[in-house]
Write a structure and sequence with these properties.
The protein is an alpha/beta fold. It contains 22 helices and 16 strands. The longest helix has 20 residues. Bound molecules: pyridoxal-5'-phosphate. The site of pyridoxal-5'-phosphate (PLP) has 17 residues, from helix 12.
């Protein structure tokens, strides 16, 4: 069998294997790797109903990672999706009145980033061995709150790797921050930056593609890679749970094989929803992908007008992991919508870099018709948390609540009653203060951990280990830097 190759969204001539794409993270031209063509699931849809998460993962990932042997892939899957998750189903679905919540927060850091970052270290070290890479791999990561901890947990003390995480010092929840700054491990470093997520992400991308820095580090035995969703090794494991969700709906007889579903996805960097699109490309029947934003609604405006414009105020909301104005993974979708025209895609991205804005043409807009945009304000998000809790007894985190609100509004306005999955990306225990305020139970005197106890008393759901373990943990990382100091901080960490 010939290998499925990956090409850059900014230059179709570059072709690499899956292993090389995972190892590099970003293409040398600054583009993102995409599969040269899309495979199709070779199990019939009806068989998905009976498959475990791990079996589904194998069926999906083997289509994309063709240069991994079956044994390698099965090994990676078994080591990733084990009892680090608090439920054997890994990604359980919860039915509410008019939708299914796909709970992706049962991993060790209680956010959906665990779904991919539990397996990425295994994929990456396997890929490194396969490519004969003997330099130490340095993972540089920018985080809007959840990727950081999930990547740290995945890579801590993994031989042959080091990891450095940058997070916006004032842009994450107290529990998110504490999760990161208490991270143990000989190969980890965490730094706050004075700036927002976009600052952190653009600087990481710049460091990544800086030829002088690469050369200097290479001479010292290091090679950069990425744990952000710009890495195709993050995206492919995310396709799995959409396929798995369809299997669960079949099993529940909510759909018959071939009947379409809608997915509503709380969106920031556009990685999660892009994975849903990839699931549709490999054969999952999808009618609509509903892209839910918070008040940083660049994507909502984009799907409405065809104009992507980041020139606006960056707002801090109660759903910090979606506080993003530059959604990196949209580039992969733009490339597709442009008919895989890398020159066109590169021009848009250059416009974005130069002026913060680009506008797509009508034919491209048509190619994006599977997507619908929606958004929720901070008040609407809080009201949704309260409404769902009061009517269903089910407590949503603010990110999931954004999606839930957008989903309700979409159904109301369109009359669409296609079976719908709302992707539930974090546990409410990660955002205790916003959640309690939404329920009208704010308590200024209680810290975020005390609020976790209150939530537990209210819902009867025990406080997850991810929260109770860090409550009294020692703070190990104190570094805070300016944007311009990030390069120095990386060099320092590696010296
Ligand atoms: C990262 C994250 C998102 C956004 O996902 P993208 O793939 O960046 O669009 C949404 N919710 C939570 C809780 C997250 O951690």
């Amino acid at each position: 069998m010939t290998n499925r190759m990956y090409k850059s969204t900014r230059n179709s001539e570059t072709k690499v294997t899956a292993s090389q794409a995972i190892l590099s993270g970003l293409a040398p031209d600054g583009g993102l790797y995409v599969p040269e063509d899309f495979p199709v699931l070779d199990v019939p849809l009806e068989r998905l109903a009976g498959m475990t998460y791990q079996e589904t993962a194998f069926e999906v990932m083997k289509l994309f990672l063709t240069d991994f042997t079956q044994e390698e892939l099965k090994g990676c899957i078994a080591r990733a999706y084990d009892d680090k998750f608090d439920t054997p189903s890994i990604a359980p679905m919860r039915k509410c009145r008019n939708a299914w919540y796909l709970e992706l927060f049962h991993g060790q850091t209680i956010a959906f980033k665990d779904m991919a970052l539990s397996i990425l270290p295994h994929l990456l070290t396997t890929a490194a061995a396969k490519c004969g890479e003997n330099r130490e791999i340095v993972i540089l990561t920018a985080t809007s709150g959840d990727t950081g901890k999930a990547a740290l947990a995945g890579f801590a003390d993994v031989p042959g790797t080091r990891i450095m995480v940058f997070y916006p010092k004032n842009g994450v929840s107290p529990i998110q921050e504490k999760q990161m700054v208490t991270q143990e491990g000989k190969n980890v470093c965490v730094a706050g930056i004075r700036g927002n997520f976009d600052d952190a992400q653009s600087m990481v991308k710049q460091l990544f593609t800086d030829p002088d820095l690469r050369r200097e580090l290479s001479e010292r035995g290091y090679r950069f890679s990425s744990a952000n969703s710009i890495n195709i090794g993050r995206l492919i494991p995310q396709v799995v749970y959409y396929v798995y969700a369809y299997g669960r709906l079949l099993q529940e007889e909510a759909v018959r094989p071939g009947e379409p579903v809608n997915f509503t996805v709380p969106t920031g960097n556009f990685g999660n929803i892009l994975a849903a699109y990839y699931a549709s490309r490999i054969g999952i029947p999808v009618k609509q992908l509903i892209c839910a934003s918070n008040e940083n609604k660049v994507l909502f405006d984009f799907f409405k007008t065809g104009i992507y414009d980041r020139n606006r105020e960056f707002l801090l909301t109660t759903s910090p992991s979606m506080d993003i104005l530059i959604s990196s993974n949209l580039e992969r979708m733009i490339y597709e919508a442009a008919g895989e025209d890398a020159d066109q895609c590169r021009k848009y991205m250059e416009d974005l870099q130069r002026s913060g804005r680009y506008e797509i043409d009508e034919s491209m807009k048509k190619n994006l018709c599977m997507y619908r945009g929606g958004y929720a304000s901070v008040e609407e998000t809080a009201a949704q948390i309260r409404k769902v809790f009061e009517t269903e007894g089910y407590l949503l985190d603010p990110h999931t609540a954004v999606a839930s609100f957008v989903c309700d509004r979409f159904r109301e306005e369109s009359g669409d009653d296609t079976p719908t999955v709302i992707v539930s990306t974090a546990s409410p225990y990660k955002f205790t203060r916003s959640v309690m305020e939404a329920l009208g139970r704010s308590d200024e005197s209680a810290d975020d951990f005390a609020l976790a106890d209150q939530i537990s008393a209210l819902t009867g759901v025990p406080v997850p280990a991810a929260v109770s373990q860090i409550r009294d943990a020692e703070i190990l990382h104190h570094l805070v830097v300016n944007r311009e100091e990030m390069e120095g901080a990386v060099k320092e960490f590696l010296s």
